[in-house]
Amino acid sequence: MWSESDHHSILSDNPFVEVELDCCSFLQEKMELWDKNMKTTEVVFEAVLPVLKLLSMALIGLLLSHPKIQMIPKPTLRLLSKLVFFLFWPCLIFTHLGPVISVKKFILWWFVPINVVISTAVGSVLGFFVALIFRPPPEFFRLTVIMTAFGNTGNIPLAVVSSVCHNEDNPFGGTCYDGIAYAGFSQWVSVVLVYTLIYHMMEPPLEYYEVVEEGTEIEELTDLPTGNENDLSTPLLIEAEWTGIEDQRTEHCQTPLVATIFNSISDVSQSNIPDIESIREMPSSPRSYGCLAEPKVVRKIRIVVERTPINQILQPPLTATVLAIVIGIIPQIKATVFGSDAPLDFITDSLAMISNGMVPAVMLVLGGMLWEGPNESKLGLRTTIGIVVARLLILPLAGIGIIYLADKWNCLIADDAMYRFVLLMQYATPSAILLGAIASLRGYAVGEASALLFWQHVFGLVSISVYIFIYFKLLVTLF
């Protein structure tokens, strides 16, 4: 009988067996390398395919809106953008967020809105450094910070997630469409930030206005670089995110109220600053007859709050988000609205059918927007490139580090790749189109904001494809 030691001895002494073993190990290594390359190719394909779908729809919109074809004229695209804003987008959020939300998940998803605030803060720091390095014209310093800081957390993440989930071989499986709920859940933070912080940051710079002596009015200089002096129509880019913007413009919207009230280190003397009482006297603001005098700081803050467009916060997408959350966290109402056995299921199904038009409509409008081209900008080429690079390349890298740390500190939902993908996407999107609408409302750097949004969306098609591939790889290996 052969012992095991004798068997190993014969194999080790036989050169033909050694060569055969070497060949087998070599072939095994080659097969493993081949499988690895195949997996990488599959990841690349899965990452690029969703963006190619979106790009194809945008190209269709681009071709159909061509002046020589005019199958989709600009008024039609405006109408389509209104349908997106008032119908398709709210229906998509309501039908995907409502069925999955609950009190437990509402608490469990706490990092989704916090991540929006973190991404805005990190983007603000990057924008500040871009402004310091590239030195844009002084009147556009705040614009540089804002356009780098505030990303699109609405229709673009929803379009990307919908496109990814449309592929049956997506890496997220059956829970893929939960990404729409995650993206919709972050809407309220974005809208509140825009209509409060961003609204006041986008007010015209005080140094480009003159204060009338002993008066109570602020008169705009005729050479203020708003960028839309000769523009008789609102750009499609702005109309797509805030329909009817022209009806919302008022005289005080284009007044540097905050800078006037709180400026104490300016060259403008305090005697020339308009009287606070004259600014705050509005038909909707009753006088206070309290016995105690109101502190000056409190009074100034109150005046700013009164001039904040709180009534604009409840836009249709945010209303749909609030309704979905309220209905979803109340089991009795949820059982009536959502579910195959729900009495109102036919209404929910109808809204779900309507929501299917959201992604193609958004991309068609985006294609028509790209055909309009960028507006004239006085921002400067170096600053424009700096903002695009910081927003689309550097900020997503910072986002990877932030989400990795949040995962290590157990701030994220365990074993949910789509949850992490949506959080990462909040760092990779171009600036929010709503910033262009706010710029138009405030009469501040309209052309510059529109040009930046145009170039960011053009290069964003490439950068988003690259980062989707990176995110897919990281979700498999790192997280």
From TrEMBL:
Keyword NADP tagged: no
Biological process per Gene Ontology, one example term: endoplasmic reticulum to cytosol auxin transport
Keywords: Auxin signaling pathway, Membrane, Transmembrane, Transmembrane helix
Locations listed in the record: Endomembrane system
Protein's membrane topology: Multi-pass membrane protein
Transmembrane segments: 43-63, 83-101, 107-133, 140-160, 180-199, 350-371, 383-406, 418-439, 451-472
Family annotation (InterPro entries): Mem_transp_PIN-like, PILS2/6
Pfam family, one: Mem_trans
GO cellular component: endomembrane system; membrane
Record protein name field: Protein PIN-LIKES 2
Organism: Gossypium hirsutum (Upland cotton)
